[in-house]
Amino acid sequence: MHDNSALSDAWFALMQQLAVSPDHAQQGWQQLQQHYTEPHRAYHNFSHIAAMLRHLAQSPLTVHDEAVLKLAIWFHDLIYDPEAKDNEARSAALAVQWMQQAGFSAERCDAVNACILATSSHQLSLAAHVPEAALFLDLDLSVLGLPPAQYRLYAAAIRQEYAWVAAIPYRLGRAGVLQKFLARSELYFTPYFRQRLEAQARHNLQRERRRLLFFF
Question: What is the value of pTM for the model shown?
Answer without folding.
Answer: 0.96
